[in-house]
Specification:
Radius of gyration: 38 Å
CATH class of the largest domain: Alpha Beta
Distance between the termini: 139 Å
Largest sheet: 7 strands, parallel
Structural class: alpha/beta
Helix content: 25-40%
Number of strands: 14
Number of helices: 11
CATH superfamily of the largest domain: Peptidase S8/S53 domain
Order of helices and strands: EHHEEHEEEHEHEEEEEHHEEHHHH
Shape: elongated
Strand content: 5-15%
CATH topology of the largest domain: Rossmann fold
């Protein structure tokens, strides 16, 4: 995962610059001499897909008809990435709130192995990652790696890919927070022990562990990790070897499974990758996506979107206490009753205004009668009428 004995190495192949310019000049000169011909620009786009033995080994293409990682974000904290590389444009988002540090060479290679989409006409050139339609959230940082991991866990990512470091940073708390938030954490094997991280070691094209690999006891999964074609810091490509690049392949594989089975918990996706593997070097599990997909499908069938253990709070990750469900249902019922009562009262309370008109008419009649009544006599009751004299 972090640090370790695995040594990463790179061998850069330049696909732009002198050689490409010379080829372009030759094509232009030929066009001038011979006149218009079929477009030759596609011939200038390098196609390294046949050389991507890692994709063929894990059989990633067999899942691409169902999913290519769409809707999934892989966070890559602690590194920089060339987001303008033609194979990564629009698949990478860089957030520099934690700094601008990190190995851009390693970061660009890891991002491309996980999520490169190729380029050229119909993406027929360049290279492809394991999940070419997923997104990579890059969080460059110096000594704030743990903060970056915690931030990524809150940013609606599904997978976190850890870089190779010197092991000085204590990430146990951050990785636990990530798992609690439903994120699968993947990293290179060989660093401090962390049960929250799916640790990956690299193998070569012959299926053997790469030289200077960490002790097998620290390895949970193996994946292609030697002489892998990857994006460099400019617009070209490089061959890389190391555990962190094998971890990038595994992170891309996790993105495919999480895209196809979004309701599975991190531990269930991890089990699918490990248990749905093939036998690898020294008895270690070797990543194989078709069998991992079968395992994930079986887990999904046994664990539907609304699981009993999740409802009872016994699951991991997003467990919801039972009392919350009862309180929610009770609130809905009470609200429904109140709405029904209000509707009944409104529907029976003189909807056409008849009572109001009747009361107004009674008041008008009473006022008219009062106006027509004769004035009251001023003679006091019981008084004697005085007789007129002389009569």
């Amino acid at each position: 995962m972090l640090g370790g004995n695995s040594r990463s190495r790179t061998h850069t192949r330049r696909t732009r610059g002198g050689t490409a310019s010379a080829c372009a000049a030759a094509v232009t000169a030929t066009a001038v001499l011979l006149g218009p011909a079929a477009p030759a620009s596609a011939d200038l786009v390098p196609d390294y897909r046949p050389e991507q033995w890692g994709l063929q080994t894990i059989a990633a293409q067999e899942l691409w008809e169902d999913t290519q990682g769409q809707g999934v974000t892989v966070a890559l904290p602690g590194t920089s990435v060339n987001e303008e590389h033609p194979d990564l444009v629009d698949n990478v988002r860089v957030d520099t709130r934690f700094g601008t540090g990190g190995d851009a060479g390693a970061g660009s290679a890891m991002a491309s192995l996980a999520a490169a989409h190729g380029h050229g006409f119909d993406a027929d050139g360049g290279m492809l990652g394991v999940a070419p339609e997923s997104t990579v959230l890059v969080l460059p940082t110096g000594d704030r790696l743990a903060e970056a991991v915690r931030f990524a866990a809150q940013e609606d990512v599904q997978v976190i890919l850890l870089p190779e470091t010197d092991g000085a940073a204590d990430l146990a708390g951050a990785t636990q927070a990530a798992v609690d938030n439903g994120v699968l954490v993947v990293g290179p094997a060989g660093g401090p022990e962390d049960p929250n991280v799916l640790t990956v070691a690299g193998t070569d094209a012959d299926g053997a562990l790469v030289p200077n690999s960490p002790d097998t006891g620290s390895v949970a999964l193996t994946a292609p990790g030697a002489d892998l074609m990857a994006a460099d810091t400019e617009v070209g490509y490089t061959e890389v070897t190391g555990a962190q690049y094998a971890a990038a392949m595994a992170a891309g594989a996790a993105a495919l499974l999480r895209s196809d089975h979004p309701h599975l918990l991190p531990g269930q996706v991890r089990d699918a990758l490990v248990e749905g593997s093939r036998s690898g070097p020294e008895g270690l599990p070797a990543l194989h996506l078709p069998s991992a997909q079968e395992q994930a499908t079986a887990i999904a069938q046994d664990n539907p979107a609304f699981e009993e253990d999740v409802l009872s709070g016994d699951g991991q990750g997003w467990a919801v206490p039972v009392w919350v469900w009862f309180a929610t249902v009770g609130a809905v019922v009470v609200l429904g009753v109140l709405l029904v009562v209000l509707w009944i009262r409104r529907s029976t309370a003189d909807p056409y205004g008849v009572e109001a008109e009747r009361q107004e008419e009674d008041e008008r009649i009473a006022a008219e009668r009062a106006a027509e009544a004769p004035p009251a006599s001023r003679r006091k009751r019981g008084g004697r009428r005085r007789r007129t004299r002389g009569k």
